[in-house]
Amino acid sequence: MKFPTMKQCLSGALMLTALVATPAILKTNRANALPPHVTEELNLTSEQQTELEAIKDNARTQVEAILTDDQLAALEGKTGRERHQAMRSLDLSEAQRTQLREVRETSRAAASEVFTEEQQAQLQEMRAEHGERGKNRQKNRREDFAEKLNLTPDQQAELDAIKEDARTQVEAILSDDQLAALEGKTGRERGQAMRNLDLSEEQRTQIQEIRESSRAAADEVLTDEQLAQVQEMRENRGNRRRR
């Protein structure tokens, strides 16, 4: 019998919280929504599982009621990461973004009521461990990126400066409350928190301009050969996301 690894357990538990936080993004079969090793790790009772399923289903219904027919059609047939990506790509109105955020917050609060204090502590610990692993992965990816492109120390320093400058510009656009939502978050966790911000159209436009400007500046640092490698990496990453 093959037992799940600790990494699988932690990932599953984090998936549970994500399931509640973003109910419309994930499309899972009701019977398979909570992997056995997750319920075992948290020692969830059958009553708790039923309550969490009801919260997820209710949130999903609310979210789908907010979306237009065209937006729902864009999600049709998509599951997992592909559905998540499609959800992020939707052209949502400010009213829709506000409503979706309210649904997420309400669902998260409802789910928290289902867990015992001990289970909540376990989840918090899992999130912390997950965040630490995320930092390590980010560091490893950065080192792998530099190694694959054979970046010189000068190039690395220039790219770091461009990244830091872009971060400073983005933070100057955000409100104090929005900055507080990003506090202490790094890597993928920060990226997710950034996507969850209730940004105005003006903020979105400004951030997009900063990203495009930063990418153009970074491209200027690289040689033609390195640019070709970067393009190939981007295409490979895009292909993996579509799977």
Automatic annotation (TrEMBL):
On the tree of life, the source organism's domain of life is Bacteria
Map out region (Disordered) in residue numbers.
121-152, 198-243
Q: Does the keyword Oxidoreductase apply?
A: no
Composition bias, Basic and acidic residues: 126-147, 201-218, 232-243
Please state the span of the N-terminal signal peptide per the UniProt entry: 1-33
Q: Which UniProt keywords apply?
A: Signal
Listed name of the protein: P pilus assembly/Cpx signaling pathway, periplasmic inhibitor/zinc-resistance associated protein
Lineage, broadest ranks: Bacteria, Bacillati, Cyanobacteriota, Cyanophyceae, Nodosilineales
